[in-house]
Structure formats: structure tokens, C-alpha cells
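Subject: Sanity check before I submit

Could someone independently write out the C-alpha cells for this chain? I want to compare against mine line by line before I put it in a report. The sequence has 131 residues.
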Amino acid sequence: MSDGPAQDDELELTSPLVPLFVITNGRALPPDHEYEHTTLVTASAVENGQATARTLSPEAGQVMDLVANGFLSVAEVAGHTHLPLGVVRILLAQLEEDSLILARTPIPRAERVDRELVSAVLEGLKNRFGA
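---
Independent answer below. Compare away.
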């Protein structure tokens, strides 16, 4: 009877030992600009995507579960899945190719406003319309 728990321990130990290239199917990293840390991803609303989602790897399925109800950043997905950022980027690229997710690049920061220009425009408006 002692063989039962030992076999359970072996089964638990095999999952973290899966090499990362098996998870990514040997795919290469996408370009850095494609999936930045702050790129937001969410599940796509494609009807035939459910059939494709059934054939996903467990890691890709976990990513799909995370982004099913809204947007998460690439860094958040990596944090929740405990996978390296590069592996997550590869999985996201594969899921986007299969039209299962949508990726939105981060909104760039606004540039600083030139205060002198704004003051000059305001002064001109006051002179023109008398305020």
C-alpha cells in the first residue's frame, strides 16, 4: 500500500520539470516591441475559438482563463502563471495567431505641455474675447 503515495509524489514532481521549450513548442521569442510588459491582453470573442481553445496546452489554457474576463498586462499574466516573461510572450503570440486573444499596446505617456505656449494662447483669448 505504500506504493500509492509514492506514485502520487512522482506525478506531482513531473509537472514543474517540463522544459520550457516543450511549453512553447520550440517557438522563438516575438520582437520586444510586440509584447511589452505593459501590453494589455484579453480573450477574443470569436465563436470558433472555443473549439480551438479545447486543444490548448495546459499553460495556454491557464493564460486564457486569466484573460477571459478582462484585460491583464503581460507582466501580470507572467506573475499569475509563474512562468518566465519570455515564455508568456511566446504563448501570447501563439494565442493571437489563433485569434484567441486581442493585444492592445500601451497608451504612450502624454508629453509635457509648454506652459509658455499655453499662457500665450490664454492671454490671446482673453485679449480677443475680453475675459
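---
OP: Matches mine. For the report I'm noting this point. Confidence is low (pLDDT under 50) at residues 6-14.
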